[in-house]
Structure formats: C-alpha cells, structure tokens
C-alpha cells in the first residue's frame, strides 16, 4: 500500500445561484465587518457587486470593498489590503473574482496577524507563518486557478521580476462558494486561458511525484472533463450547463493539486508570465508540449495509458506522439498561438528565465528531475 496524506479543511458549496447566499453565509460565520476583495472592473460591470451589497443590507454587517486587485497582483497590494482590514477591524475576508482576487484575499486574511511585508513569507519562507489569519469566503468567477480550494497564493515582486507562491494550510478558505453563474460573463479568451490552466493543473497533479490513490482519480476525471467540455464552452459561452462541467473539473483538479503540487510546466510558466506579461494559462500552454515530451520519456506504461485514455488515445502504440498531438490540437481549437517568440520573449532571455525556474515550488514535484540545462532545452523547444 502506498503512503499518503490528504487534508482539505474547506467547506465547499457548489451550485448555480449560490452567490446570492454570500451575505447569509457571512452572517452564519458570525461576521460583523467584512472586506470584499475583488478586481477593479468585472464585479462592477456585471452589476453583481451592487446586487450583493443590496443583499448585505438585510444583515447587521458592515461591508468594505477593496477593489484594487490587478491581474498578476504585486505583493504590496496584499500589504495595503491587510492594513485596511486591520484599521477597520475586519472579521471576515471575502474574495470574489479570478485567481488574482482570491490569492490576494487569502493572503490579506493571513497577513493581518503577521509582522513585516507579505513578501517575507514567500516561497520557502511560508513556514514562518505561525499565526492563523481571519476566516475567508472565496468565490471564483473563473474556472481555472481553483484558488478557492488550495493552500496557495501566487504573488509578484515587480522589482525583482519574481513570481512566487506562499503555500500554507492557513491559506485554505473557510468556505468556498462555487457558482457556475458567475463564470457566464467570462469572455472567450479568458475562458480558454483559465480552462487551460485547470487542464494543466489536472495533468501536472496526475504526473506529480506526490500523485496518490486519492488524487489520481480526481486529476484524471478533471483532465477528461476539461478536454471534452472546454472546447464546447469556448464555442457556446452562454451555456451554463457546459460552464458547470468545466468549473466542477477545475474544482476537483484544485483539490488534487493542492495535495500533490504541480510540475515543470508551472515552474516554467511563472517566470515566462512575468517576462512576457501574458495570462497565466497562456504561459502554461506555451511550455506544455516540450515539458510533457521531456516527462513522457520516464513515465510508466500505466501512467501513459491512463493519460492517453483521458484525452482520446486508446492504444499504447505510438502513444507518446499521439498524446502530444492531441494536446497540440486541443490548444489550436482554443486558438492558442504557440511559440515564446510570439510574445516578446527574446532568445537571449531564455538563460535568465531558466535561472528563475528552480525557485518555483512546482519545480520539485515534476516527475522527471529538472536542472538548468534541461530547462533551457525545454525553453528553446518552446521558443
Ligand atoms: Fe496554474
């Protein structure tokens, strides 16, 4: 028997229309002063923020809105939000939005009780977090990062061009409200990018050195579901039934990868995202095929066979080539243009990017050991 740990202390509530229960859930958690953490536009332009504030009027709860979260959030946004939370005496943090808003919300909640800046706790310094933060409700409006069920918060340091994560059990949400309705307004491109992110989470969790008997079926189901439904959502953005499938898959891939960690694709995608200033899911797509090609060489027949079946490759004959081809086709259905050179990355940037890769937590859980040379080789192939 295999040894494994599995811990996910998040109450998950999944279903269409549940977002309207956010005020009621806040009240049930005993909140008196909540801070809603979100991005600048989406929640306002869709009218959801106003509706939500209206519902809050029925409860004895003061609501503050911190809508300063940009895509690829810099660490100091967390410090600013935590300062506000402290000054106002906030007792519940609510993150609503894409991965950035949720990552910032959970980091604000934990930062409230910590000295210094949140960047002091990034990467390997995450274990310096010894005090629990405020409770959180996390509500995704994209189907991709699965931040609402993970112990990870990804932040950027614009000065050093680093994109790193805090990983800690205290970052788990108290409650995740996962409502497919909120993903309906996600534009076409972002639907593809966030769905690809979820696809890669499933893939990398399945291949991770920590993949186990509990996470494997979750990762494979997510992989199969996203492979099947993401292209259909992409061409039918208004179909909530299809959105629901992809959001469900994103959720279970998050439950899997928060246990297993990710792999080389994410380790490479983080510095690429910073260098090229492109969405995370796109950065992942750009390095998926050469990284997977590298990993496939050492995978067991069982792994290759299970991975193949999830994406429509049913025979082991030339399975590696067929798997790579299927994924290439999947990206092209989603109109992803591959090639790092198409996104402002120069050949001479590659060694600098390769230097950054080992800093990522995902580097250690790749199924095949990586080093500077192999990473550089993958980057050249992805160029
Ligand atoms: Fe990701």
UniProtKB/TrEMBL annotation:
Cofactor: Fe cation
InterPro entries: ADH_Fe/GldA (IPR001670), ADH_Fe_C (IPR056798), ADH_Fe_CS (IPR018211), Alcohol_dehydrogenase_Fe (IPR039697)
MF GO annotations: alcohol dehydrogenase (NAD+) activity; metal ion binding
Keywords for the protein's UniProt record, in alphabetical order: NAD, Oxidoreductase
Segments forming domain Alcohol dehydrogenase iron-type/glycerol dehydrogenase GldA: 9-180
CDD domains, sorted: Fe-ADH-like (cd14863)
Stretches assigned to the Fe-containing alcohol dehydrogenase-like C-terminal domain: 191-383
Top-level division of the source organism's lineage: Bacteria
Family: Belongs to the iron-containing alcohol dehydrogenase family.
Protein name as annotated: Iron containing alcohol dehydrogenase
Highest classification ranks of the organism: Bacteria, Pseudomonadati, Dictyoglomota, Dictyoglomia, Dictyoglomales
